[in-house]
Design goal:
The complex is a heterodimer of chains A (130) and B (131). Helix content of chain A is 81%, strand content 0%. Chain A has 130 residues and is mainly α. Chain B has 131 residues and is an all-alpha fold. Chain B has a single domain, classed as Fumarate reductase/succinate dehydrogenase, transmembrane subunit (3 helical TM bundles of succinate and fumarate reductases, Up-down Bundle). In chain B, α1 runs parallel beside α4. Chain B starts with 19 loop residues before the first helix and ends with a helix. The chains are: A mainly alpha (130), B mainly alpha (131). Chains A and B meet through α2, α3, α4 and α5 of A and α1, α2, α3 and α4 of B.
Chain lengths: 130, 131
């Protein structure tokens, strides 16, 4: 519907409203959240079901694709979701424009570094010598 | 600044009562931040230690078995379940459901109860069955 085709106030708002980007951002924030429902439950149940939490047991568990892949997905989704959430908190509490951009960058870099370290560790476990 | 009006102010900003929905909302942010800053840092440390040598993992195990470390892990477990159930509630509310006063309050109380219960069950299995 193009702007001005409707004579009613509601029709005008619909025609001249938002840039329609907010919804996509909102949905994107929920993507990692929804992905974390099965992934986090998988992690909790796996840790409970493992015979023990010794290094050898965990390394053997994470060497198999059936654990390495969901753990990699969990790492990616968890760091993404953590970043999504902290972004909103920063927007709420850091009011100065310059500080806000700076804090956003710092937190994003920390999240990316944390995810990279975790994925590197997983690759080392999965592809390293047994 | 205009002169103060003689007309009465709405009390909406200063007179209010704590409710479960407010507690759960604040807990969602609190637990989310705890899980992000403490939980994800520990996740990375734990994975790197598993990938590392025996002494690297011994450091993690020692920290996890220390009473203070154990308290942090139990706290993070509770934070996870509180954020999990509260997050499910948010996804339901995102659809436009569960916003009526009574249902909203009930779901808020349920997330607190479910999180405490799930934390107890998780640690019952972690401590009882495995070791």
């Amino acid at each position: 519907m193009s702007a001005g085709t409707s004579a009613t106030p509601l029709g005008k708002v619909r025609g001249l409203g938002s840039a329609a980007h907010g919804g996509a951002h909102w949905l994107e924030e929920r993507f990692a959240a929804v992905a974390l429902i099965p992934l986090s439950l998988w992690l909790v149940f796996s840790l409970i079901l493992l015979p023990d939490l010794a290094q050898r047991t965990l390394a053997e568990w994470l060497r198999a694709p059936s654990a390495a892949v969901p753990m990699a997905l969990f790492v990616i989704a968890a760091f993404k979701h953590g970043l999504d959430g902290v972004k909103v908190v920063i927007d709420d509490y850091v009011h100065d424009e310059g500080n806000r951009v700076g804090v956003h960058y710092l937190v994003a870099m920390a999240a990316i570094a944390g995810a990279a370290l975790s994925l590197f560790a997983l690759a080392k476990i999965a592809f390293g010598a047994a | 600044m205009t002169a103060p009006s003689k007309r009465p102010l709405s009390p909406h900003l200063t007179i209010w009562k704590w409710g479960p929905h407010m507690l759960v909302s604040i807990l969602h942010r609190l637990t989310g931040n705890a899980l992000t800053f403490a939980g994800l840092a520990l996740l990375a440390w734990w994975l790197l230690a598993i990938a590392g040598n025996a002494s690297a993992y011994a450091d993690v195990a020692a920290a996890a078995n220390h009473p203070l470390g154990l308290a942090v892990l139990v706290g993070l477990t509770w934070a996870f379940w509180q954020h999990f159930f509260s997050g499910l509630r948010h996804l339901v509310m995102d659809t436009g459901s569960g916003l009526e006063l009574k249902i909203n309050k009930l779901f808020a109380i349920l997330t607190i109860a479910a999180a405490l219960f799930a934390t107890a069950v998780t640690w019952f299995f972690l401590m009882g069955v495995n070791r």
